[in-house]
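Predicting holo structure, adenosine-5'-triphosphate bound.
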Amino acid sequence: MTDALLEVRNLAVRYGDLIGIADVSLTVPAGKVVALLGSNGAGKTTTLNAIAGLVPPAGGSVTWMGQAIGGKPAYAIVGGGLALAPEGWRLFVQQTVEQNLRLGATVLADKKRVPALLERVFSLFPRLAERRRQRAGTLSGGERQMLATGRALMSDPKLLMLDEPSLGLAPAVVESLYETLGQLRRDGLTLLLAEQAVELALEVADHAYVLQTGRTVLEGPAAQLADDRDVQRIYLGLETTAS
Ligand code: ATP
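Done. Tokens:
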């Protein structure tokens, strides 16, 4: 066996008669950053949601630290150390920043750890500390992404999955968010990052997988994919300025 924390093999998800994903395989080694790339509708969100237990797999397997977790409920998966900062954030907008963060810690068996985890989130995201008593509904997009990330970190995960963290955010905000992700990685956190912002994701990732219509069609070291303009044009629908 490798040092894989997470192994996904031939994962499939159906939405009634519709196919969400047909055949997705990926490996996330401990301590690495893995990017999941693909254009709109390729199946990134469905893949992360299936790993997190938010949608049931119709086929294939999800193995977390050697245990099969496919089909387990979301709370059991978070409790096992695998957290998701979802697309669209899914915050409780009437609750304060701090209340949202504390909700992320409900799966922790040892509640005495909550103050230290809260302090860690506030030191990673000082803006959240400033706004801790503000309702989540009053936050900017960038602050909401920080809060969704912070809430996932409150479960003290070994692996953090982020679904399109850069979506809709101003470039300066994205840059600062990615700096924080770099910090988390240096602290030893493993990351699985779904992104449409290909260049950005390939800058921070060690390895990347490309999804197309619900299948992993390509994988490789991030540096190699970043250099391959054909790959970007064919699979990711990006225009290239290279002549
Ligand atoms: P996006 O960037 O738009 O989130 P994505 O790569 O994350 O794209 P998914 O959202 O996972 O892709 O979508 C994969 C496929 O599943 C698409 O064909 C989509 O239309 C379909 N799909 C996603 N959610 C549902 C749903 N709740 N019901 C039916 N079909 C869905």
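The chain has ten helices and ten strands.
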